[in-house]
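Dear colleague,

As promised, here are the two records you asked about, laid out in our usual form so they can be pasted straight into your sheet.

NAME FIELD: protein one
SEQUENCE, THEN STRUCTURE:
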Amino acid sequence: MKGRHLAGDSGKASTSESISEVRTKQVARTPTDEEIRLRAYEIYLQRGGIHGFDEDDWLGAERELSDGNH
């Protein structure tokens, strides 16, 4: 009986570790410059191609991609 109990515990531990590892990877995800550049360009086009907001577009794209909202 003790052996079955230990096996159950180790299964739970590995499951919780897997979930923790997945969450860490999701939180630690940093978008590449290319991903940010492409998203910033999409934002620029959605705004009608109006110049002068490149920094706002870049920061918005970076924020979206880091949060996983895109």
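NAME FIELD: protein two
SEQUENCE, THEN STRUCTURE:
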Amino acid sequence: MKKHMTLDEWCEQDGRGPSAQAKALGISRATLWRLRGDSHDLLPDTARRIELATAGKVKASVLLGVVA
């Protein structure tokens, strides 16, 4: 079974700094740091924006805990 990429893994591979990553994802830098550790209180709309901004590499379903 294919392992899904986490937001933390995407950030590590992206190569930009946290401020640029947060801007690309459409979230604040503080939110990015929080989500890299725990996405349990993430809104579905934000999860979908992150999925779109990462070109589908980080799935909204994974961020929301629907898919392990």
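A couple of things worth noting about protein two: Residues 52 and 60 are 9 Å apart (CA to CA). Helices lie at 7-14, 18-25, 29-37, 44-53, 60-63.

Best,
R.
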